[in-house]
Write a structure and sequence with these properties.
Distance between the termini: 42 Å
Radius of gyration: 22 Å
Shape: elongated
Structural class: alpha+beta
CATH class of the largest domain: Alpha Beta
CATH superfamily of the largest domain: Bira Bifunctional Protein, Domain 2
Helix content: 25-40%
CATH architecture of the largest domain: 2-Layer Sandwich
Largest sheet: 6 strands, mixed
Order of helices and strands: EEEHEEHEEEHHEEEEEHHHEHEEEEHH
CATH topology of the largest domain: BirA Bifunctional Protein, domain 2
Number of domains: 2
Length: 352
């Protein structure tokens, strides 16, 4: 196997020795229907048994909005989205998916994965990280996101389906922030404007750093990385009869009907693994908060326009500390109330 060059990058031959190979099935759906894509990997997982070969499903689904398995379409999206909406059987938040993403789902018997589910992401996403390293990019894992230069480059979601573990992600080649922002249910236009601004600062894509790759090349590079890391020998594969039956049965599960209007992030949205944007209304007045890690990086109160947006950036996230700053902008008798409301609205990333 000869090294492959792309945009000046030469990939080494990292094949394991012959006796270390494990067969893995590669199912390439190419450009496909969104329902077909999600139903395919779910069907493969549902049909998988202990001892089966691992499978990767690769494809470029048509444009759709993809909700996480615990999300509500009524709570998360505008009333009349102009694209199909699918609720995937994997965790995580809502994402825009289109042909500018190369989607990857790794499905394997559960003994392929670490015993602790919080270790699944580092294990399953290592081939993707290797692809980025071979591009010369210092990408790293932040919880279940892949970050580059302080911005999210890829997200992921995981689940157990039947006897299989499943981890899905994608190479984000271009991110249409405007499309994503327009579809999100927003409590105000001000919230939507903040979201648009925050996404520009928090998310990046392949095309921000290099020309768009040839998808056949990207597929090859990913498979080579996975072969070297996991000791896999790839087999181009089609669905088995039991997988096709499971796929067809799973289609109805992807339709987000009869759901309860409860948001995954109360009062707002997850921007990336470290950042959340929230807004809550109180008797005609509102609080809007952007958090980064354990910090309130941006704040606005509808009735206190003179409050600097970064006034709480260096504050402890306690009622006393927030009250101390608010006392310069609010009457003393309501300072404590609005400090409570700010902290009740803010949503913080896990300290881990």
């Amino acid at each position: 196997m000869k090294p492959v060059e792309h945009h000046g990058v030469t990939l080494p031959d990292k094949r394991p020795t012959a006796d270390a190979w494990v067969k893995a099935r590669w199912i390439d759906l190419g450009e496909c229907d969104p329902t077909d894509y999600h139903a395919t990997y779910a069907g493969v997982a549902e049909a998988m048994q202990a001892g089966d070969d691992p499978v990767v499903v690769w494809g470029m689904p048509a444009a759709h909005f993809c909700l996480g398995q615990h999300q509500s379409v009524a709570a998360e999206l505008i009333a009349d989205p102009h694209v199909p909406v699918i609720r995937r059987p994997l965790g995580g938040g809502g994402v825009w998916v289109d042909r500018h993403q190369a989607c990857i789902v790794l499905i394997a018997p559960r003994d392929f994965f670490p015993s602790r589910t919080d270790g699944w992401y580092a294990h399953a996403l290592e081939p993707m990280l290797q692809v980025y390293r071979e591009m010369g990019w210092a990408a790293s894992l932040v919880q279940q996101d892949v970050w580059l230069n302080g911005k999210k480059l890829a997200g992921s979601g995981a689940a157990t389906l039947g006897a299989a573990g499943v981890v899905g992600t994608s190479f984000l080649l271009k991110f249409p922030a405007a499309e994503f922002t327009r579809l999100i249910a927003a409590p105000s236009e001000g919230f939507r404007q903040w979201l648009s601004e925050v996404l520009q600062d928090a998310i990046t894509s392949w095309s921000d750093h290099a020309p768009m790759p040839d998808l056949a090349w990207l597929s090859l590079v990913y498979r080579r990385a996975a072969a070297g890391i996991f000791g896999w020998r790839w087999e181009q594969a089609l669905l088995r009869d039991d997988e096709r039956a499971a796929r067809d049965e799973y289609r109805a599960e992807l339709i987000p009907e009869n759901d309860t209007p409860k948001k995954l992030v109360p009062h707002g949205i997850k921007v990336n693994a470290q950042s959340y944007l929230t807004e809550q209304h109180f008797d005609g007045r509102w609080v809007r908060v952007l958090t980064e890690g354990q910090t309130i990086s941006r704040i606005a109160l509808s009735h206190v326009p003179q409050l600097p947006e970064r006034s709480l950036a260096d504050s402890a996230i306690t009622q006393a500390a927030v009250s101390q700053i608010l006392q310069d902008y609010l009457p003393a008798e309501i300072v404590s109330l609005w400090a409570q409301r700010i902290l009740a609205t803010a949503y913080f990333a896990d300290k881990s």
